[in-house]
Design goal:
Blueprint lengths: L32 E4 L6 E2 L2 E2 L3 H10 L3 E5 L7 H11 L9 E2 L1 H11 L7 E5 L2 H11 L3 E2 L22 E6 L7 H10 L6 E4 L18 H11 L6 E2 L5 H10 L7 E5 L2 H11 L2 E5 L6 H9 L9 E3 L6
Helix pairs in contact: 3-4, 5-6
């Protein structure tokens, strides 16, 4: 990366073929707590990022605290843990996983009035399974919601069911009718508006494909339900920050966040007042980093850049 007015960049490097270990090697291990995004950082789709498993294992062997802080809400913690194990991260457990679903359950337990009626869910089965299993609340809305495409379809839309909250997550079955239902339920000022995250896209192995994320769905509902604004559970939300600070002893001087997205991962780390490390294997590129530096968007500028392959 070119030089810039912010003295922030220190490249993690190690074990160059001809030079042996470099002094910068110890930078990577000087922290006590390590927060990692998952998709685009530790793995892409169903493939581990080269070197990621070994790096995580080495951190754990050194007695470091390691957490996966993901914005993925499509799976329950148990399902997510199954994927983590299958990918080869054998030494991580459920206590190492922090997802929007985990933060959501914590929030609803502290605010039980949002569970007084049914919850309308736009999202995956993972969100519904979490709400029903952990909180015992009735959910409806997930899955396809077909409607006849003619002028009479409005007569068939059911909006009379009492609803205490609308929860929005990633939904491949998103439809006009779902957006319409959510916006109408949110006309009730006592109905809560919650979203798992606001990622507009997410990384896939084929970098030439754009895959819309929950942020796109949220934007559509927000536009219809104006001026309602959602409470967000994923990075870089206040609810996640509160959860992290309340449940873990995070020393800002010895904690670091690894992520590929500047607007979620890096912003969240900067929000916590900790060092941040941008990973080159996900959504944002070096050009994006240069752009935010030039624009002096300090909340999006990382402390370091890193690639696991530089280590192994």
């Amino acid at each position: 990366l070119p030089s810039h007015p912010y003295p922030l960049w220190s490249i993690f490097r190690a074990k160059m073929a001809s030079t042996g270990p470099l002094p910068e090697l110890e930078i990577a291990f000087k922290y006590q707590t390590y927060l990692f995004d998952a998709d685009g950082v530790l793995w892409k789709d169903n493939d581990p990022v080269p070197g990621a498993i070994r790096f995580i294992d080495e951190l754990l062997e050194r007695g470091k605290k390691v957490f996966i802080v993901t914005n993925n809400s499509t799976k329950t913690t148990e399902q997510y843990m199954k994927k983590v194990k299958e990918l080869g991260f054998a030494h991580l457990g459920e206590k190492n996983i922090i997802s929007p679903n985990v933060v959501m359950v914590d929030f609803f337990k502290r605010n039980p009035h949002f569970m007084s009626k049914a919850i309308y869910t736009i999202g995956s089965a993972g969100v519904v399974a979490t709400l029903e299993k952990e909180l015992g609340v009735e959910c409806f809305g997930t899955g396809p919601d077909p409607v006849d495409a003619d002028a009479t379809f409005l007569k068939s839309v059911e909006l009379k069911k009492p609803v205490s909250a609308v929860v929005v997550g990633y939904d491949v079955h998103l439809s006009y009718i779902k957006i319409m239902k959510a916006a109408n339920f949110l006309r009730d000022p006592n109905c809560g508006f919650f979203v798992t995250n606001e990622d507009y896209t997410f990384p896939v192995p084929d970098g030439n494909m754009v895959v819309p994320g929950t942020g796109c769905i949220t934007s559509a509902i927000r536009a219809c339900a104006h001026p309602r604004e959602p409470t967000v559970f994923g990075k870089p939300s206040e609810q996640l920050e509160r959860y992290m600070k309340a449940n873990f002893e995070l020393d800002p001087n010895s904690t670091i966040m690894f992520g590929d997205r500047l607007d979620t991962d890096i912003k969240f780390g900067n929000q916590l007042g900790i060092d941040t490390c941008w990973m080159r294997t996900g959504v944002h590129t070096a050009e994006d980093v240069i752009r935010v530096i030039a624009a002096k968007e300090t909340d999006l500028i990382p402390t370091y850049t890193f690639s696991f392959e530089l280590f192994y």
